[in-house]
## 1
Amino acid sequence: MPRKHHWLWALVPVSVAAFSFFFSVGVKAATPEENYSRYCAQCHGKGGKGDGINATEEMPVSPRNHTDAGEMGKLTAEDVYFAIKDGGKSVGKSSLMPNWGGTIKDEEIKALVEHLNKLCGCTYKAK
């Protein structure tokens, strides 16, 4: 005797299709400003001056002031990219700077590098 299927099983293909559609087109990359606010501002401050709520005098190293053209101009775009992606320690800076490469997409990190360049109003050093 053939087994009867419950009517809910008919909804499975529809649910899987809806779920796939949502995750393929419904999720967009965050803007550099959104990512900066979400991941950087706690230490570097909303305006990028190194005065975020997590920046304290007890820290062995102060968070970088992203508006300081003199200091930011000493860095290459690659330095900034890898500091964000792999953390400060990867570029010989503070290990307090976390690595965001597992959290932020590569194209979003590249956009953050450009955003930081606008904050400092400078040109990154050539390689």
## 2
Amino acid sequence: MTLLLPQPNQNALDNKKLINLALLLILALSSFILVSLSIEQGRIAHDTNNLAQVKSSPFDNTNVLAKGAIVYDIGAKKILYSKNPDEVLALASITKILTAVTAVEIMPKDTVVTINKQFLSENGDSGLYRDEKWKLSDLISFSLIVSSNDGASAIAGAAGAFLDNQNPSSISLNDFINVMNTKAKDIGMNSSQFYNVNGLDLSSTQSGAYSTARDVATLLAYSLQKHPEITDATRYDALSFKSESNKLHTAVNTNTDIKMIPGLLASKTGYTDIAGGNLGVVFDPGIGRPIAVVVLGSTYDGRFTDVNTLVQKTEEYVAQGN
């Protein structure tokens, strides 16, 4: 007896193959989607981490006592930190940097300056003598280190006389101050105004000079690039000078914290009742990258704390590879 087995239905077999194929495709697609999602999540996490790194800066949440402040990368022409950088504030003795810059662009470098009697009437005795003679470069260095009002006036007076056809009898500081203001505008100090050559307050309500943190950074950059010798001596805590009259002078830096600043290239303090505490420095973190730090309108001691804080933040910033 022959047993006849039922023959498989061809349509049923084809449907089963299609179902199996569809399941395989669904499984493959699901795996692809899962892998893609995993890759995308990793990319998003990586991008988010990078974004967080970009946004995070040592300067975040940094605060200083100063009313106006700036950290300026001179070479890159980039502001790394600022607080009210364009607020016009009393400048005090930082004025003397512009006095020096203007003078060396008027007079020959070998000029000998005589300390005229009228220049010894300024506030603050820095030890200069009547009729004493100085090399221009030495007098500038001495005056910036000790912030000598007498020295600044003598420098400006000599330059003023040079402008007035080298006639000592017509010494006029006004001519020199006019040139100072022109020079300030020429180098981009567009918010600054100078009424005297040393920054001393003219009265209880008016300063001798006004500027902004941004403008002072511009001045420091210009001085460093065009006349680096002007502020070179301000890197030291003390220096000795002998005038052409053979008188010995010891200059002690008014910036008592210069040893706290690595790679210091320039420094100038300023303080008056109206201005409060001011300080501008240029330092190099050690990579040929001069950076200006300026604080205006701080306190007498706070200016040093403010600058040290910003210097430390700058070092951290540079260490991150920025």
## 3
Amino acid sequence: ADLGFRVRAADLNELFAQAGECLFSALVENLDAVRPLTEQSVELAGDDREYLLFDWLRELLYRFDADHVLFSRFEVQVRPDGLSAK
């Protein structure tokens, strides 16, 4: 099944962070109740912003499915050649 959502943000970094939060808010009833207990880093390469957003969300879903990790907060730095996130 596909999932669609709209994200608005002041800048690109916040847009990617908000997209991650929207994704996980669709998976749990109350994302605000999820306490961050650990920090994980994500590094992705890519210069096409649309594909980078797709890869970002796909990576988060992979970690949710494979590692049974639920994320609730994101810090994202989008660069010309990819992104770094916590």
